[in-house]
Specification:
The complex is a heterotrimer of chains A (290), B (296) and C (365). With 290 residues, chain A is mainly alpha-helical. Chain A is 73% helix and 0% strand. Chain A has one domain: MetI-like fold (Orthogonal Bundle), CATH 1.10.3720.10. In chain B, helix 12 packs across helix 13. The chains are: A mainly alpha (290), B mainly alpha (296), C alpha+beta (365). Bound molecules: adenosine-5'-diphosphate and magnesium ion (MG). Adenosine-5'-diphosphate (ADP) binds next to helix 1 of chain C.
Chain lengths: 290, 296, 365
């Protein structure tokens, strides 16, 4: 018995976590998937009815807006954060004496709650008292910056705040990547007289492909899950103008009492995330074993 | 990362001094961009409402007042309650501390098992946990709400702790596992020959080695849980909300005039613990971020 | 005399891949058993099986006459030194050495006195308070040895303990281990991929390849009479010359014919070995091919050879000539006047020759 126990301690210790993951991740996903196929409203029902919830979902204009927003927000957020992060990383890589301080400044937003970020930017972009008022105060009376209350522009306000928060993180990733390139290769290139910009474009950046991928995955993942920022910055408004799938799901689940819609929208979100993340993780895990 | 100082690719030769200045100017401009919101938050929180309405966003406060901070801390209204952030701040402390401690400990043991005591299926379990890190939590919100009710902890702090622990162990396990796989397996073998068992080896050999990854994990978990909003808003009720939820309520409270200075003070208060940790242990914070994404 | 270590019919597989196949090995008390083979052949796995760090799929392991097949490592009364030393990084040298005793509940006074004994023996007294990271490679190696010595076990296990040291230190430590073995009179099992280490240390060598034992014997046996082509090629440096040859029976003995391009075949007559198949591989160590006139004996036969390359190596000079498409190395004295491109009379000592079957590679004589 003692020997059996001794041999099996590792298994016994891992078992609770394994069970927890099985139940609270995979079991719950299954539950949500199940409920998304029912007519659940305020309370879950368990009779499978097919894809009615998905039909309702795809017919709902609000969901349409949410998906559109996700696309605009996600694309802009990812592209701008990556470009900005890469630019900052390359600039910081030029043996800047104040690199440590600058890096600290660029990265601190990542330590903040998105609610704080949203609150701050909501104030900064406040049309009456924020940037708009400030610039008008400088004499540009016609200046307008009212994105947060403009249904067509509000989503871009969210992009600004999100980029502000996450681009420093991308910078840190890229900087680590730039630094991990073999010093000797760079020396060899310089001995060969290759100009700086082509050292970057032909040698360093291509060798960072895995980091680009990682950054993309993380940002895409953040974009799809982003919820707090929208809530704090625009509350999904004006109207539903800045709804994202995450806020749609939340509204259905906790204020509209439409569990079926909440479940089906969550499943769509998960599908999108997994379509991006699964191939990535799969290849990562395989690469590690092989 | 900090002490790596590779030779500069742009050589500061005579003709390039100007370029160098341009570089600094651009970097400084970006620094302003990142600092501006923090600056505005601080200055706004120190102004009176009158000064806010009459002055510019970026102007320094003429008359520094801490009234907004007092209000934010102890009497700002969120909905019908007017107790400021204080009780919610302590809620966050009360849920973050145990949730971080428990999830870190579980992660350490899991990582130790997966990295050093491999058994058939351990890798599969690890993969399952890893995939679990990436799910959008919306997909577990509904069943978790019901489960918490079923367990009798709906709307309570222990309930929130439970949720944070469950969805935190994926990452904490990942951190520790990735750290412990870099430790040669011979160490465990040598200790086994020396007569030490599973726990002895963990305690005497691995724990003393784990300080850096412990820091990374604790800071990561602390930041995640303190800054969490989704679980907080979904699984708490009036008295048990964490500080992020309370902050959002105060800011979006529809009663009375909008007190921007109070909002900013409240935002800084809510952000303070994680900012503080970032300031004193930024190195570990960055390592956690990069480890959490570019998994080693 | 009963064996200190007795391995019978040991099998080991990871999943479907068989790593060790039907291993039968024993070590006498006080013996120095060396497991040698190319890297990846399963040496460490076998050592780990002996230590109980890996479970085995079949067979049995007896240590000191006791069946230890299913006994956990801590109860096998063994000590082990690892290639990476595996020192506990956060513990001082002293704690590294005494950790095992502490785990076993040995009292403080005994621990201290044993530590002192071992530290003196290994001359690491001044290092006891340091961390492993503050030690040089050689010092770490000593500490790892100390950790094993302090156990005073029935059986010492070494897994390539010297392979992380530089060449000079390696030779020094090799001598030291040999001396230690002599002084302690302990039984040791030693894994290495370095055949010189194997030759110098062992009282008994086990040659492994792909998890199969190729030959077991004393260093001299292994060197002089390799059991197959693999052993012949693996043991000895420079390696044994292995030359394809044709044989035929003649009145005086066996006629050996070796092809060579651009010349008549080399013909040798072996008067001792008969009954060889027509096609063989002839094996001669470089030192068994000398410059004509420097080697005498009934079986020595001289052949004129074209020299391709000359490699002076201090005490000796190696010359290479092409026979049957193979580079054949001869070990000459250092004053030789041999020049690349010139011809030289080489003396082949057929008294030392080995023959191997061309198809199976097994030894024939
Ligand atoms: N845990 C394991 N799982 C599967 N194969 C293994 C494992 N450990 C070792 N092997 C394989 O067993 C073989 C022998 O390994 P090893 O005993 O370390 O060789 P050596 O010490 O002779 O270099 C190698 O081919 C190796 O790939
Ligand atoms: Mg080995």
């Amino acid at each position: 018995m003692a020997a059996w126990l001794e041999r099996n301690v590792p298994r016994i210790l891992l078992a609770p976590s394994f069970l927890a993951v099985l139940v609270f991740v995979y079991g719950f996903i299954a539950w949500t998937a199940w409920v998304s196929m029912t007519r659940s409203r305020l309370l879950p029902k368990y009779e499978i009815e097919g894809f009615i919830q998905y039909e309702r979902l795809f017919a709902a204009p609000r969901w349409d807006t949410a998906m559109n927003n996700l696309f605009i927000f996600g694309a802009l957020f990812i592209v701008v954060s990556m470009l900005l992060g890469l630019l900052l990383a390359i600039l910081l890589d030029q043996k800047i004496r104040t690199e440590g301080a600058l890096r600290t400044i660029y990265l601190y937003p990542m330590a903040l709650s998105m609610i704080v970020t949203g609150t701050a930017w909501k104030w900064i972009m406040n049309p009456g008292l924020g940037i708009e008022a400030m610039v008008r105060g400088w004499g540009f009376d016609e200046f307008a910056f009212d994105w947060v209350i403009d249904p067509d522009m509000a989503i871009y306000a969210i992009v600004v705040a999100a980029v502000w928060q996450a681009s420093g993180f991308v910078m840190a990733l890229f900087l680590a990547g730039l630094r991990s390139v073999d010093e000797e290769i760079i020396r060899a290139a310089r001995v060969d007289g290759i100009p700086t910009w082509s050292i970057y474009s032909a040698i360093i950046i291509p060798s960072m492909a895995p980091i680009f991928l990682s950054a993309f995955i993380v940002l895409a993942h953040l974009a799809i899950k982003s919820f707090d920022l929208v809530i704090a910055l625009t509350g999904g408004g004006p109207g539903y103008a800045t709804d994202l799938p995450a806020t749609y799901m939340y509204a259905m689940a906790f204020s509209r009492g439409d569990i079926g819609q909440a479940a089906s929208s969550a499943m769509v979100m998960m599908t999108v995330v997994f379509a991006i993340v699964v191939p990535y993780l799969y290849s990562e895990l395989r690469a590690k074993r092989g | 990362m900090v002490d790596a100082t590779p030779a500069p690719l742009v050589n500061p030769r005579a003709g390039q001094v100007a370029l160098r200045w341009l570089l600094f100017a651009i970097l400084a401009l970006f620094a302003l961009f990142y600092l501006m919101p923090l600056f505005v938050m601080i200055t706004t929180s120190l102004k009176s409402l009158d000064e806010i309405r009459s002055g510019s966003l970026v102007a320094l406060p003429v008359q520094v007042t801490f009234e907004a901070w007092r209000t934010a801390w102890s009497s700002a209204c969120s909905g019908i309650q007017c107790e400021g952030l204080r009780p919610y701040f302590w809620n966050s402390v009360a849920l973050t501390v145990p949730a971080v401690a428990v999830s870190t400990l579980i992660g350490a043991v899991n990582g130790y098992v997966i990295a050093q005591w491999k058994f058939r299926g351990a890798n599969l379990i690890f993969s399952l946990m890893l995939f679990g890190c990436f799910i959008p939590f919306q997909v577990v919100l509904l069943p978790m709400a019901r489960t918490l009710g079923f367990m009798g902890v709906a709307g309570t702090i222990p309930g929130l702790i439970f949720v944070h622990v469950i969805y935190g162990i994926g990452f904490t396990t990942l951190f520790f596992r990735n750290y412990y796989v870099t430790i040669p397996v011979e160490l465990v073998k040598a200790a086994k020959v020396d007569g030490a068992g599973f726990f002895r080896i963990f305690w005497s050999i691995f724990m003393p080695l784990s300080l850096p990854i412990m820091m990374v994990t604790v800071i990561w978990q602390f930041t995640q849980i303190w800054n969490d909003f989704l679980f907080g808003v979904s699984f708490s009720q009036a008295g048990t909300q964490p500080v992020t939820v309370a902050l959002n309520n105060i800011v979006n409270s529809t009663t009375g005039v909008k007190e921007y200075n109070v909002n900013m003070a409240a935002a800084i208060i809510a952000a303070f613990p994680t900012l503080f940790v970032y300031a004193v242990a930024g190195k570990y914070f960055i390592r956690g971020l990069t480890a959490g994404s570019v998994k080693g | 005399m009963e064996a200190m270590l007795e391995i019978r019919n040991l099998d080991k597989s990871y999943g479907a891949t068989e790593i060790l196949k039907d291993i039968n090995v024993s070590a006498e008390p006080g013996g120095f058993l060396v497991l040698v083979g190319p890297s990846g052949c399963g040496k460490s796995t076998l050592l780990n099986c002996i230590a109980g760090l890996e479970s085995i799929s079949g067979g049995s392991i007896h240590i000191g006459g006791r069946d230890m097949t299913h006994v956990s490592p801590k109860d096998r009364n063994i000590a082990m030194v690892f290639q990476s030393y595996a020192l506990y990084p956060t513990m001082s040298v002293a704690r590294n050495i005494t950790f095992g005793m502490k785990v076993r509940g040995v009292d403080r006074a005994t621990r201290a006195s044993k530590l002192q004994d071992v530290a003196r023996q290994l001359q690491i007294e001044q290092l006891l308070d340091r961390r492993p990271s503050q030690l040089s490679g050689g010092q770490r190696q000593r500490v790892a040895m100390g950790r094993a010595l302090v156990r005073d076990p029935q059986l010492f296990l070494f897994d390539e303990p010297l392979s992380n040291l530089d060449a000079k230190l390696r030779v020094e430590m090799r001598l030291e281990i040999k001396k230690l073995h002599h002084d302690l009179g302990a039984t040791m099992v030693y894994v290495t991929h370095d055949q010189i280490e194997a030759m110098t240390l062992a009282t008994k060598i086990v040659v492994l390849k792909d998890g199969v034992v190729q030959q077991i014997g004393s260093p001299a046996e292994i060197y002089r009479r390799p059991a197959n082509l693999f052993v012949a090629d693996f043991m000895g440096s420079p390696a044994m010359n292995l030359i394809p040859a044709r044989t035929s029976r003649e009145s005086g003995g066996t006629r050996i014919e070796i092809e060579r391009t651009g010349g008549a075949p080399v013909v040798l007559i072996d008067t001792r070995n008969g009954d060889l198949p027509e096609e063989v591989i002839l094996g001669l160590r470089p030192e068994d091919i000398a410059e004509a006139g420097f080697r005498a004996g009934e079986e020595v036969q001289e052949v004129k050879c074209l020299i391709d390359m000359v490699e002076p190596a201090g005490a000796d000079t190696f010359v290479v000539s092409r026979l049957a498409g193979r580079q054949v190395t001869a070990r000459l004295h250092s004053e030789t006047t041999a020049q690349p491109g010139s011809t030289l009379d080489l003396a082949f000592d057929l008294g030392k020759v080995s023959y191997f079957a061309q198809d199976t590679g097994e030894r024939l004589n």
